[in-house]
Amino acid sequence: MENPRFSRTTDIDFSKTLRKRVNTYFKENNISRKGNTNMVVKTIVMVSLFFVPLILLSTGLVTSIWLLFTLYLISGFGMSGIGMGVMHDAIHGSYSKNKNINTLLGYTFNLIGANAKIWKIQHNVLHHTYTNIDHADDDINTPFFLRFSPNAKHHWSQKFQHVYIWFFYAISTLFWITAKDFVRLKRYKDMGLLLKKNEFSKGLFSMTAWKLFYYSYALVLPIIMLPFAWWVVLLGFLSMHIITGLMVSIVFQIAHIMPETDFPLPNEKGMMKNEWYRHQFETTSNFAPKSRLLFWLIGGLNYQVEHHVLPDVCHVHYKKINHIVAKTAKEFGMPYHVKKSIFHAIIDHTKMLRLLGSKQTVSIT
Question: Do 323 and 316 meet the contact criterion of CB atoms below 8 Å apart?
Fold first, then answer.
């Protein structure tokens, strides 16, 4: 399937105006659109939250089960913090002006068991470019028992997806680091997205090595060192991934799989109706814009609209440029979706999953 193409003639004034106003904000305030001291502090905190508990578990000094689970759970918050608040900006190139620093911090994703190269293709290329477009956005390509788009094939088993989806969200990162990256490596090779000589074989070797390293220090070493049965340590390890899986899945899915967001399709010539910027506004939703704690914990991803139209801007600036984006969108008649809290967003996301799982017609305008 040929990738959809966006209009180059509509809404041109909007995109120029938005970029100009945002650029003016950074210039007038004499600040960089990349990361700042707050970003460095967050990186230290999140990396420490992930690694310090695992180091303690690997010393063999932990002698109580409740402390074992507590340390793994803390590590889970650190893992999600690295994923959403450190590597996410780094791989987008918005963490630093220095490409080497972005590349280096992007490898923190490999350290937590995933793969930076695969994520960059899945997220930066396919999701950000073709948001909510069936078959093009890899974030909504699901197994048959899940349906994230009204344009996807309906199956009877999806009727209760709004109930069992939370289990799959909980195990999502465990499946991700164990099998999903390998599946996507093969898929992207078949799609022609790995074009360099021996890129697939080198990628496979590198991915396997990183994952073996991750499992060695996060699971095998604690099993060897701690005075508990192996299955107790394994349960602690799983609890870490349940925390991470729920946090990451919920944050990314409530930004797009919502009753208000659109799921447009290209015409028979492969053209989308709208220009890329309008497409992002129509397919993306913010949530909990007033929550400072949530903003810090999830790397500003409650401002998904700002992130999608300005992915080169570090998330620490989203709160400051939010009014510019919202005002410009209103001025040019762009939709601007926002939920007042994460709880309202989760409720509406659940309703959308229920609707998609039923046989009811869902608007795709």
Answer: no
Containing structural domain, residue 68: 12-357
Q: Say yes or no to pLDDT of 28 above 70.
A: yes
Tens-digit pLDDT profile for residues 87-123: 999 999 999 999 999 999 999 999 999 999 999 999 9
Using CA atoms, how far residue 214 sits from 146, 223, 241, 271, 338, in Å, is 29, 14, 13, 43, 37
Structure tokens at 217: 């220090």
Amino acid at 142: T
Spatial distance between the Cα atoms of 163 and 160, rounded to a whole number of angstroms? 5
Q: Which residues of 33-57 are buried (b: 16+ CB within 10 A; e: fewer)?
A: bbbeeebeebbeebbebbbebbebb
6 located within any domain: no
Helix axes 230-253, 342-357, angle to 10 degrees: 90
Angle of helix 12-28 versus helix 318-331 axis, rounded to 10: 150
Mean pLDDT across 127-144: 95
Q: Which of 306, 299, 293, 315 is nearest to 338 (CA)?
A: 306
* Average pLDDT of the residues in 248-277: 95
Q: How far apart are CA 42 and CA 153, in angstroms?
A: 42
What would the DSSP string read from start to end of 264-305?
----TTSB-SS-HHHHHHHH-EEE-TT-HHHHHHTTTTT-HH
pTM of the model: 0.93
- The verdict on residue 136 lying in a domain is yes
Beta strands in 40-166 (DSSP E): none
Domain count, the chain: 1
Q: Alpha-carbon distance 55 to 226, whole Å?
A: 12
Nearest to 247 by CA among 299, 202, 291, 311: 299
